[in-house]
Amino acid sequence: KNKQMKKQEGFPGQLSYVIPDKILEMVARNLLISDLYITDIGYYPHARHHFRERKVGAPQAILIYSIEGKGVISAGNSEHEVLADHFFIIPPGMPHAYYADKENPWSIYWIHFAGPKAKLFSRAALQPILIERGKTSRTNARLELFDEIFKNFDRGYSIETLEYANLCLNHLLAS
Description:
four-stranded antiparallel β-sheet; 4 helices; alpha+beta; about 30% strand; six-stranded antiparallel β-sheet
């Protein structure tokens, strides 16, 4: 296969939060948010050489939302090019790999999310879904929701912060 440089993490300007297991145990017991919650979230701008492969999948669903550039996602038995303004949700437990295009690497927002409702959100389709930019696309509102979650996780993991950030996740996925 093509020998390309692979980078796991560390993009200039990146943001990422991995919620500690101890905190996730608390979230899983909280009836307000236990049905759908964030385990990891981030933003990778111009993610040159970004590559990730999970041969047995991840325990959570994974949302990848590309805002510019392009990348490729292999999930299940198919491979998909993911362009700007597209999102893709990989179901929990599905083997997959994804990587940024060499010439025009994607900038992506991503979320790993869990809970009983996670599978429901990932049933949509194993294909990139376009969110066309226009008067009704609310792209800026969606990016502000990501920013809102980041700002809250910056403050720490109080129960109020966790509830608010995870209720924002419901709004974000619904959008």
